[in-house]
User: Fold these one by one.
Assistant:
Number 1:
Amino acid sequence: MVTHFQQACYDLLKQIPAGKVTTYAEIAHALGGKAYRAVGTAMNKNPNPVIVPCHRVVNSDGRLGQYAFGCERKQHLLESEGVRVVDGKVQDFEQLRFRFN
DNA sequence: CTCATGACTTTTT
DNA sequence: AAAAAAGCCATGA
């Protein structure tokens, strides 16, 4: 089942263009709170991996973080979109970072 | 309602 | 700098 909170997260994710990334904290704040932990939980339950680009969500320090289908898969997906990743960390993270309106 | 848990973040050792 | 602890919050039992 999909809760309202989860749906909100997915809607935000769908706004992120390819080649860009965001953080759990960013999403949580966009939702008006600090539920960054809950955001991760929502991603883990990701119902449609294709429609929702949950691989574009990384930790606040630029690290990749976890991924339901394996963190390696996450890294390759990002690299195939043009995001350079070195030793589990996003390069030029601050620049590639997408900001919500 | 209360309790435990986790794709997190920040502070303190 | 690196590791541990504390703080956070939605979700499911």
Note: The beta strands of chain A are 22-23, 57-58, 85-86, 89-90.
Number 2:
Amino acid sequence: MPRRVREQQIIDVGVRVFAKRGYHAASVDEIAELAGISKPMVYLYLDSKEGLFLACLRRESDRLVAAFQGAARAGAPEERLYAGLAAFFGFVSDHRDSWVVLHRQAADLGATIAAEVGEVRRVVMAEVAGLVGDGITDSGSGCRGALLGKEDADFVAHALVGAADSLTDWMARNPGESPDGVALRLMHMVWVGMRHALDGEAWAPGER
Amino acid sequence: MPRRVREQQIIDVGVRVFAKRGYHAASVDEIAELAGISKPMVYLYLDSKEGLFLACLRRESDRLVAAFQGAARAGAPEERLYAGLAAFFGFVSDHRDSWVVLHRQAADLGATIAAEVGEVRRVVMAEVAGLVGDGITDSGSGCRGALLGKEDADFVAHALVGAADSLTDWMARNPGESPDGVALRLMHMVWVGMRHALDGEAWAPGER
Amino acid sequence: MPRRVREQQIIDVGVRVFAKRGYHAASVDEIAELAGISKPMVYLYLDSKEGLFLACLRRESDRLVAAFQGAARAGAPEERLYAGLAAFFGFVSDHRDSWVVLHRQAADLGATIAAEVGEVRRVVMAEVAGLVGDGITDSGSGCRGALLGKEDADFVAHALVGAADSLTDWMARNPGESPDGVALRLMHMVWVGMRHALDGEAWAPGER
Amino acid sequence: MPRRVREQQIIDVGVRVFAKRGYHAASVDEIAELAGISKPMVYLYLDSKEGLFLACLRRESDRLVAAFQGAARAGAPEERLYAGLAAFFGFVSDHRDSWVVLHRQAADLGATIAAEVGEVRRVVMAEVAGLVGDGITDSGSGCRGALLGKEDADFVAHALVGAADSLTDWMARNPGESPDGVALRLMHMVWVGMRHALDGEAWAPGER
DNA sequence: CATGAATGAGTCTTCATTCAT
DNA sequence: AATGAATGAAGACTCATTCAT
């Protein structure tokens, strides 16, 4: 069996096991066994547990980015945000484990891995920030850009990513909902408000 | 040194270490050392690594609930949501590790612990769902209740908890922001839209 | 509470626990707790786990010897053997744990203890050897002494002690039997044969 | 080195160490070291300390049973008993540790092990009971069967096994004696008497 | 007389990793 | 290309034992 194929098989299993158990609790033994090969092969191909995890991380990260970029890159900003969210929920629907590996590792990783995980998260966040920042900046007359400056976009991106991550669980518990439906609901929550907020409507505690 | 005091000291350190490393990667040795005592004391007082973790979980969970309940329980629904969010961000500001222990464990926990962690998460979610569900249901003329039925409240609660969790990281990276400020920003994102959404304004893909 | 009383209480519990678990698996913690006192008292009174075990050993050994010596020391030799056996089975009936502590420890004891246990076993064996050796030597015309010389008496003593020990289990599983009954049965097995053997009757393989 | 061979080596050493120290006091470390391998191998091949002990137990138990069954299974009943005893003493002469592992563990074993040890002891006892029960029942005119009913055979078996066990120690201290010699002496003690006892001769305390 | 608090040392067990074949 | 055999290092847990009070 050619090397590349084997490698992918190992990574497939790795993603499953890392998602199920977390980095530390996952054992190379289990991964090798589920992959149907012997442990030395894992080390031959992927170097170390860390190497294996990084390979998983990278492949899934690429897949997620690809899913994002496959989504409509043009059109009205809100369309693009919607498309991005829909792509995200679609991706998670299809590859639950990938997202878990990418986003739900505990803080128990070595320096090298932590760095790469941080990088992945930053990329995701930047992608989303681009979506909302650009989206809104470009969105119309141009003067609205002020409200969502770089810092605001980052704030909103964090909120959106967090919400989306959490809604991942909600989806798992509400299997009837389609990814597009979830994205739409989230848009309702966020976009309608944003539209008005950009027009200057605000909320303040103590208002009545 | 009396038992109770020591116990709290151990839990203090436990929360710190579990937050930093995650359940599996945390070692009882390290916790004992940081607590300035020997391992057997940890076992004498907390029974096992699992027992220690559960003790941490429970204490921090209680603290979080207390922080929530200290927030205004009366007033207009949006005031209550704002107060709840502000309380949450305040709590996380003061006890970063607590939230990490409560919410960011990887999937590598034994059955007993997983059950308790699940329970904690469910309670938090229910608290928030209550905030938005009741808040909106009661909010005005009463007829708005329809939009945020039980399922909607659950959806919104997931989105909010996820957003808040993620904004936790944002706060850590933007130390200038006060918890109240973060809560306010999140309210802007969400509440203004909700107000309009409840009035029937919607968004649909492909609209223009 | 006076020291002597406490000491006996501790030894009481010690015998129970050592019998139930064996020397190694018994824990001083458990003994202290069952005795209703704190561990330092155990150490104050008995010095160490080894000291505690030795105290148990000695007390129970004395009790067993006393039980033996209480049995008829005079009379026909076979009467004395019977009385000795009956005393033994009576003792074990009443103090199962004592016998277990005295005779059923695994080989896992430190040098000091092993020596003392060996000594106790030797004393028991000698007592019995005395019973059969003297018994038979003195028994009648005097010429029979030849058959049961010192080595023979030792052999018979080993066989008898082993049989008695094992019958201890049989008794436990046949609660209807009285100690005297068991002793009688054993006498039947052994004495009748011995009477004839002393008269020169033998058995050889291949005889027909 | 192939797995099977190593496994047997480990068990060899296990029997030696368990015999010398007893289950609890034996340490896997020591066994690994004496076997000339590292601890993980022991766990890889035998699973756990318990697993290792059970493996020892089973192998030695099989050996003992084989030794028994190698002994003459036919011939006059007393011949068979003698052959059985001789086989036993021969076995113990050659494999002192085996018998110790099989029969001399303190009461400190976990449930699983205790069950298996109990089973082994029951098998040995049944084997001997079969020897004396059948042996005597079948022995002659047939009418003698009455004396050694099932319960009597069990009693005698206990006595014999106990005696044999104890004589094991005697043998160790009298190295000149051959196993056959010991068996013969024990036959003298027991069989001659039994022959007469079956013919109705009895002994009663107080008789003269 | 009595104990709560504390620990050094040791045991079982597992895991990532390598080497000889 | 592939693996059976092997291990150093580390982690959870327990126990006999001792102070300070």
Note: Chain B has nine helices and no strands.
